[in-house]
Amino acid sequence: MLATEMEQWSWPPRYDEGYRPPATQPHWFPGRETMPPERRDELIMARIREVMRYAWRQAPFYRRKWAEAGIEPDAVRTLADFEHVPVVRKEELRADQLANQPFGSYLCVDPTEVKHVNGTSGTTGRPTAFGVNERDWRAIANAHARVMWAMGIRSEDTVLVGSPLSLYFGSWGAYLGAERLGARVFPFGAGTPGQTARTVRWIRQMGVTVFYGTPSYALHLAETARTEGVDPAELGLRRLFFSGEPGASVPSIRARIMKEFDALVYDSGSMAEVTPWMHLGAGGEEPGVLCWQDLVYTEVCDPATLRRVPYGGEGTPVYTSLERTSQPMIRLLSNDLTRWEAPDAERGRTYPYLPRGIYGRIDDMFTVRGENIYPSAIDDVLMADPDYGGEHRIVISRAAAMDALAVQVEHRAELAEADRRHWAGRVADRLRLVLGVGAHIIPVPPNTFDRTEFKARRVVDDRDLLGEITREGAAR
């Protein structure tokens, strides 16, 4: 019965590696992607019980955690019951790996089965190792191929992977998906001096049609192309898809990238820990992403109660792997922020929808005079402005007894000095309207800030810096 309802749906996952849909077919698995969501939820609940039973047998981490909460897998019979399963936090994973090196006691296979190792950089704490067996590696490839197929990527495409080929799972996931759907894959990477200029030349030389990276890097690539005397719109790219940071679903950033390259833009991405991270991925040409619930079950939850919020509500995603056998994540708390909408068959797939994608992290939020502010909201305003020069820095400080928000903003090179004060006032008015709090705008020349080939870091929380940059701005 399941084979006819949900193509190649099994536990543990097994995929037909020779399968690929006809190029004109919009769905990789038409039944799984278009079935009534209520029926899919029933099948997902059955899968969740299978995954929980498996983890209970194989992983001391989960057995201990659930026993302490008084929960056994067979007692979880509905998705409402599942909301009472305790969440897993990243700090728990790090602590467990420290005590049970190298992969933690949530590894569900013999360590000798681990054939691929990825991980976090460890820049904010102990690195987390992701141990992936060959079965999971192939399941990731098949899952990402499905989502990239929904983005319109086909076997005749040449896909350039523009982010670093390192521990970062994003690059490898994009590589695997492109390879599985039969495309030519060009793992160019990024990160060495002068490489972006070489990227421009290679895109033209190899006839690259699809680019993967971060939105920040795409904008840097467009600037570099112009410096090299090349119009980005003439590079021949048809599609660009992104992960790693907000942007591809932020209206002004998305519009800017589409205009620069005269190409379609797609958003994707959740967390490396629950790879296939493209389980949040575009399913058409509108902004936002779908929750591909048959790959990773996603709940958008109230950060305080960790219970699902109704459709239309805002919350933090909680993820449960449905295809991972090596290190399955079961109710992993993301601390990201999103808003979700109910499935709508008119979108072509019957999955819940995140219209703005993942647009921030709860721990990236900062508060100025009682207003909660996310950096992506500032990015959206600035990138929509015609005189924006390409980069900015957000500085939070305290002047006297009040928190203060300043934004150093590059202006267009052509913007006359006499017009900059008026421009700064216009930007400040727009930010006040959007944020609900005033911001001091400091115009700075183009190319003041370094460009990034990976994820942008634009926020500086420094109580002593505001006076310094204000003086520098006035001196200019």
Automatic annotation (TrEMBL):
Residues 370-463 form the AMP-dependent ligase C-terminal domain. The keyword Ligase applies. Residues 108-315 form the AMP-dependent synthetase/ligase domain. Keywords: Ligase. The keyword Cell wall biogenesis/degradation does not apply. Pfam families: AMP-binding, AMP-binding_C_2. GO terms for molecular function: ligase activity. It comes from the Bacteria. InterPro entries: AMP-bd_C_sf (IPR045851), AMP-dep_Lig_C (IPR028154), AMP-dep_synth/lig_dom (IPR000873), ANL_N_sf (IPR042099). This is Phenylacetate--CoA ligase. It comes from Pseudonocardia eucalypti.
